Amino acid sequence: MTHSFTALAIALMLSTLSSSVYASARSYDGWTSTYSRSNPLRACPKHCELITTSSQVYGVPSSLILAIIKQESNFNANAQSHKGAKGLMQLMDMNSTGIDPFNPKENIERGTALLSRLLGQYDSIELALAAYNAGEGNVRKYGGIPPFKETRNYIKKVMHYYQGYQ
């Protein structure tokens, strides 16, 4: 059995052990190194049932909801930004009327409903994320993703987390 075949077999075996562990291998002149690392993004850390339910009700991938919560509040239900955004999905007052934005259930439901509407409106995850972050008016004004560094970084980070949670 060759070293690269052995490394591949070990990597495949390790990758099936747990969805929260990823495996890799590297080949060097005549020897192979394999390793596995836990991937903290693979597992849902908090509010999993609420996220799954909202995902199913609103047709938004749970991995995208997790990614937004990770970026917006790092799963802190009491998070509040200097701009006034509140809760897990950092809802602004205009998007959280009639609910307690610090209540995880209400925040996730309202945030996912908003995201579902934006995904339908823009038919692009990146544009929906831009609207979620910078506002629909700015997406309309710039005819796409606004040139704001904060928004562009936000989209990159959320997409990275989204891929990690899949």
Automatic annotation (TrEMBL):
Keyword Cell wall biogenesis/degradation recorded: no
SUPFAM superfamilies: Lysozyme-like
Positions of the Transglycosylase SLT domain: 50-154
Family statement: Belongs to the transglycosylase Slt family.
Superkingdom per UniProt: Bacteria
Pfam families, sorted: SLT
Coiled-coil regions listed: none
Keywords annotated in UniProt: Signal
InterPro entries per record: Lysozyme-like_dom_sf, Transglycosylase_SLT_dom_1
Protein name, as recorded: Murein transglycosylase
Signal peptide positions (record): 1-23
